[in-house]
Amino acid sequence: xxxxxxxxxxxxxxxxxxxxxxxxxxxxxxxxxxxxxxxxxxxxxxxxxxxxxxxxxxxxxxxxxxxxxxxxxxxxxxxxxxxxxxxxx
Length: 89
Description:
Blueprint: H1 2-21, H2 25-45, H3 49-73, H4 80-85
Helix pairs in contact: 1-2, 2-3
């Protein structure tokens, strides 16, 4: 059990560093979502299912969705249809 806790801690720290070093905004949002899912696993291991559900729903769900929408609004993420229209497919 201690090794699982240590691996989760290392994974969460690696995600935190990776988000700040990510070159792409989309990859930073995806890494943030993975970190939030790992945090929900930590809350489960700490026997706090209410916080785990909240972390999964708000941290990985709603916050990531809002970040994806914001990236789409500022045109940081292009759709496949947009690229085909511009001849970049």
